[in-house]
Every structure is written in structure tokens, then in C-alpha cells.
Amino acid sequence: MERTRRAAGRGRLIGWALLGAVVVALLTVGIVRDRGAESSQDRADDVARRIACPVCDGESVFESRNNASEAIRAAIDERVTAGRQSDDQIISYIESRFGGQLLLVPRATGIDAVVWAVPAGALVVALAALALTFRRWSAQPRAAPTESDRDLVAAAMDDP
């Protein structure tokens, strides 16, 4: 009986591990897959969505209509139309020219990636630890009440 329960537990654990691996693989493919050819306007809009307006709070350069955002959009359009720079190079140019921390979407490299990945990893580890702890608790045999336990309950019931 005990062996069958252990084997079933291992089977479930392997199933959950495989499910987790599939989810991680699908998320990875979704993040890094190539979206195909974009028009230069689509590319410029995508870059503008990643840069924060230097004047507005919480708006991207793509959404904002103030003069600073229009100047940044013009610089982005000029660089995209020239076609000699990658999106990251254009963003670096905008940061150097306009100063400040302008990124709305963090870079996927270096410390920015770590800052976003560590909390997500910690959440996954914490959920796994909780699941294992609850599983251990439910697997422990329940102790039957002793005679002294019954005496205590009876005394408590009799006491007004």
C-alpha cells in the first residue's frame, strides 16, 4: 500500500515537472521568437512605445503629444528610415541625446533582466515550497486521540 502511494506521488511530481517545463519552454519561445518583417513605421512606433515621455508621467513617447515627445519621435523616425541602426542603438542614442531614464520596458540583458527575473523565480520557488509543505502535512499519519485527550475534553464539557 505504501509503495503504491509513493509511486503515485512520484508520478504526479513527474507530471507537474513536465508541465512546468512545457510552460517555461512555451514562454521562452513566445518571448524570443521573431515577429517577421515590419514596416519602418511599425518599427518606429514600437521603439516610441518603449521610451517614456520626458515631460509626462506614465506616458510613452508614442502616446504623448507634447513638443519633447514629438522631437523624440522625429529622431526615431529619422534613424529608422536611415535603416542603419538596431532598435537598441536608436534607444541608446535617444538616451544620450535627451538624457534621463527614458525606458518604459527594461532591457532583456544585464541587471535589468536580473531585476525582473529574480522576483518571478522567487515566486515560483515559494509556490513549489508551499505545495511540497502542504503535501508533507497531508501525508503525515493522523494521531488518534489518547485516553488523556478524551479525559480533557470530558472535563472541559462538564465544567460550566
Structural features, described:
This protein is elongated. With 160 residues, the protein is mainly α. The protein folds into 3 domains: 1-33; 38-105, Cytochrome C biogenesis protein (Helicase, Ruva Protein, domain 3, Orthogonal Bundle); 107-140. The protein is 70% helix and 0% strand. The protein has helices at 2-32, 40-50, 67-82, 87-98, 110-139, 147-158. Helix 2 packs across helix 3 (67-82) and helix 3 (67-82) packs antiparallel against helix 4. The model has no long low-confidence stretch (mean pLDDT 83).
The tally of structural domains comes to: 3
CATH superfamily annotation of the largest domain:
Cytochrome C biogenesis protein
Distance between the termini: 46 Å
Tell me the number of helical segments per DSSP (H or I, 4 or more residues long). 6
- Low-confidence region ranges: none
> What is the second-level CATH architecture of the largest domain?
Orthogonal Bundle
Residues in β-strands, percent: under 5%
Order of helices and strands: HHHHHH
Q: Tally of extended strands?
A: 0
Summed over residues and divided by their number, the pLDDT gives a mean of 83
Brief overview, please?
This protein has helices at residues 2-32, 40-50, 67-82, 87-98, 110-139, 147-158. The chain is an all-alpha fold.
Give the SSE map.
Blueprint lengths: L1 H31 L7 H11 L16 H16 L4 H12 L11 H30 L7 H12 L2
List the keywords.
6 helices, Helicase, Ruva Protein, domain 3, 70% helix, 3 domains, mainly alpha
